[in-house]
Design a protein that fits this description.
The complex is a heterodimer of chains A (655) and B (60).
Chain A lengths: L1 E10 L2 E7 L8 E6 L5 H13 L7 H6 L6 H10 L3 E12 L2 E13 L4 E3 L4 E7 L6 E3 L2 H9 L11 E3 L12 H11 L2 H25 L3 H42 L6 H58 L9 H10 L11 H13 L4 H22 L1 H35 L3 H99 L6 E6 L5 E5 L11 H19 L5 E4 L8 H13 L5 E5 L6 H10 L2 E8 L3 E4 L1
Parallel strand pairs in A: 3-13, 3-14, 9-12, 12-13
Antiparallel strand pairs in A: 1-2, 1-4, 4-5, 5-6, 5-7, 7-8, 10-11, 14-15
Chain B lengths: L4 H10 L4 H16 L5 H20 L1
Chain lengths: 655, 60
């Protein structure tokens, strides 16, 4: 893009100024020469105000005096004409191929006796005209910003429009970070990096989306297969059970037919065996009873024989007891000894007369001797047992007889039953076959019952398995649908990853190439510009894009070189940046050689002339700067050479 | 911002056998050079379009 016209109305020194920068087939170089104070730097401000609404290069005087943007003569004229409002307006017309783009900023200012009030916001419009149709006017902030950034992005404006007097500050430490930023921004590596990062974010989003949707089709399918196998197994089991039941029913039916009218031989035999066991048990019981009867008779014979004597003896003992005629269980000899010796035979203490009297009364009351009393007491329990046994004889005898008779009766019944069963068994001719058939029928009846229960459970199991199969089938259909969606997302991810890898490799190459080319071209321009051809070796950019000037002796000297050299270094860097970035916008330099003199100026002029073959360059000079040596080089090459001057120290015009 | 031709050339070179990716990346580059702001919807739109185009080619 190149600027073709700048029209300024009522902006600071400029009452009405139209500058044209026609294209040339040779150098696209344009020179403006003006004394200090005429408005060279404000021309730069007019451009940045128009495009970005900022005036970064205001002189200290302008700022100190607080002069309005509105031109002073325009204020006077407006007052004289009785106008309330006057406008400040800057328009920049540019060409991009067949497009003609006009950037215009307009500021309304209220005219008051001593106050110039900006009464409304600036209006910024961009008009794009093409040969095909009517011009299109853009007014919204977003659209106009887009159209500015497309050609002259604000964040890197200082690499398009810059003040030569400030060039020596370019690489002071606080600006170091900006070098990398500027390089990546102008060469658009940052845009490539942004695409790389954003694609990464898109891929991340898609992966999360796929993760959420990703169905485990294989698992569902495996579950379904397992369910189908289970159904198959259950159905086979049901079939087997039904066959077994049918088989059992057939066997039961056949055996029932065969055994019609026959005794149940196994049951009969079982009953016979049970009766035999009962008979055996009763006989054992009877034998034991007989033994107890013999013992009973023996005991009873004794008891009954001595009953009368034992009864009488007990009566006598009881009578003596009632009369207290029996001595206590004390040795009568001891009592006599105590009386004779007047000493207690137990505690060996002397007896009192009252104690002795008591012992005498006790001895007088005893009618039988202690030996006799002992004998009576020792036989008493035996006498009682004999009496009780003899008196319970009848009852005990009846009980034993009853038990015996009961056993006999049971034995008779069992014997009769056994005789009956034996008769029936003896009447069966083919015992083995009947027994086998009875057993077989019974076994099959049991098997049928078990299998019928199993069949019921299997049918219930089959019902549940089929319901599970139905659900799994639905799950599988859903999973298959999701898989289709998922595969679509995976396709998008694959595609985006491939694109991201490519843009990543572009970024990497760009970074390496840009750094290398920047080093080469900055070194090239710098060595062209400075007169000391044998002092500096090269300019390097570190991995972190820190710029350094390397002396021939190998040491870093960016911090020690002169102000003029730093200016040329900055200019070299800027020229290299424009060249390497391929960014085809103009370069506007205000007072480019303010700090450069002598042979460096000549080199500067030669280099800028060369650069202007491929790039539009606009430069402003003071008459002193625009020295004969420079003029000699620029004059033949410059497409336009404009002289600016002031009228009444208020208005700048083209001379 | 006018596009850096080096970027364009590199993308063209690296995608000479993959027209869908080329178109996709060129769309992204064009978008980023012109339209700051909401980007995700546009990226997804370009991606869907590119893959749909790929399907179409594959179908053919």
């Amino acid at each position: 893009m190149r600027i073709t016209n700048i029209d300024i109305m009522n902006y600071r020194q400029y009452k009405s100024l139209s500058l044209e920068f026609p294209e040339s087939s040779q150098c696209d170089l344009h020179i403006l020469v003006a004394q200090n104070g005429v408005g060279k730097t404000n021309l730069l401000n007019a451009i940045t105000w128009c495009l970005y609404g900022v005036e970064p290069h205001l002189s200290d005087d302008t700022e100190d005096l607080g002069l309005p943007k509105l031109n002073l003569t325009a204020i006077d004229e407006a007052k004289a004409a009785g106008k309330d409002v006057e406008y400040v307006e800057v328009a920049i017309r540019a060409e991009d191929g067949y497009k003609c783009i006009t950037y215009k900023r307009r500021l309304p200012v209220r005219i008051k006796p001593n106050i110039f009030e900006e009464i409304a916001k600036e209006v910024f419009t961009v008009t794009v005209a093409t040969p095909d149709g009517d011009p299109k006017v853009y007014e919204s902030r977003e659209e106009t910003k887009r159209l500015v950034d497309r050609y002259m992005p604000e964040k890197i404006r200082e690499y398009f429009y810059f003040d030569g007097e400030q060039l020596n500050n370019y690489f002071i430490s606080t600006r170091k970070g900006k070098v990398k930023e500027a390089i990546f921004s102008i060469s658009q590596v940052d845009m490539v990096n942004l695409i790389y990062k954003r694609l990464g974010e898109i891929i991340g989003d898609k992966q999360r989306e796929a993760g959420q949707k990703a169905p485990d089709v294989k698992k569902v399918k495996d579950d379904l297969d397992e369910c189908e196998n289970q159904i198959q197994r259950i159905e086979n089991n049901i079939r087997d059970l039904e066959e077994q039941i049918a088989k059992s029913e057939l066997i039961i039916k056949e055996n029932t037919e065969y055994l019609k009218g026959e005794d149940n031989l196994p049951e009969l035999e079982e009953k016979y065996q049970e009766l035999k066991n009962a008979q055996k048990s009763l006989n054992q019981e009877k034998k034991a009873l007989m033994e107890s009867i013999y013992s009973f008779v023996r005991d009873m014979k004794i008891a009954l024989t001595y009953y009368s004597a034992a009864k009488d003896t007990l009566n006598i003992i009881e009578k003596k007891e009632r009369e207290n005629a029996l001595p206590p269980n004390i040795d009568k000899g001891l009592l006599l000894k105590a009386l004779n010796e007047h000493v207690c035979t137990i505690c060996n203490q002397p007896l009192s007369s009252s104690e002795e009297k008591h012992i005498k009364r006790l001895l007088d009351s005893f009618q039988v001797s202690s030996e006799t009393s002992h004998l009576l007491m020792s036989i008493r329990s035996e006498l009682e047992r004999i009496v009780i046994s003899a008196e319970s004889y009848a009852e005990a005898k009846n009980k034993i007889v009853s038990t015996y008779k009961n056993i006999e009766r049971q034995l008779n019944i069992i014997g009769a039953e056994l005789n009956n069963i034996e008769t029936r068994l003896n009447s069966i001719t083919d015992k083995e076959e009947i027994k086998r058939r009875f057993t077989e029928r019974k076994d099959n009846e049991r098997a049928k019952q078990i299998n019928t229960e199993k069949l019921g459970a299997a049918k219930e199991q089959l019902k549940r398995a089929k319901a599970q199969w139905e659900q799994l089938k639905i799950d599988l259909d859903k999973a298959m649908e999701k898989e289709t969606e998922c595969s679509r997302i995976k396709q998008l991810i694959g595609f985006a990853e491939k694109a991201r890898a490519i843009i990543g490799s572009v970024e990497k190459e760009m970074m390496d190439e840009v750094r290398q080319k920047m080093e080469e071209r900055t070194t090239h321009y710098f060595l062209e510009l400075i007169w000391k051809k044998n002092t500096y070796e090269k300019i390097v950019l570190t991995e972190d894009f820190q710029l350094d000037l390397i002396h021939k002796d190998g040491y870093s000297c960016v911090g020690t070189c002169s102000a003029a050299e730093r200016c040329l270094l900055a200019l070299s860097f800027t020229l290299a940046l424009h060249e390497v970035s391929g960014f085809n916008s103009l370069l506007f330099i205000d007072t480019p050689v303010a700090r450069v003199s002598d042979i460096n100026r000549i080199n500067f002029a030669k280099v800028l002339c060369d650069v202007s073959y491929n790039k539009q360059i606009i430069m402003t000079f003071s008459p002193d700067e625009y020295s004969p040596e420079i003029r000699k080089i620029f004059e033949p090459a410059a497409r336009t050479s404009i002289q600016l001057s002031m009228v009444d120290e208020k208005v700048t015009i083209v001379s | 911002m006018a596009l850096n031709k080096t970027i364009i050339n590199k993308v063209m070179e690296k995608t000479k056998h993959e027209s869908a990716i080329r178109e996709f990346l060129m769309n992204l580059i064009q978008f980023e050079s012109e339209s700051p702001g909401w980007w995700k919807a546009r990226y997804n739109e370009f991606l869907e379009k590119a893959c749909k185009g790929g399907d179409h080619d594959a179908d053919n």
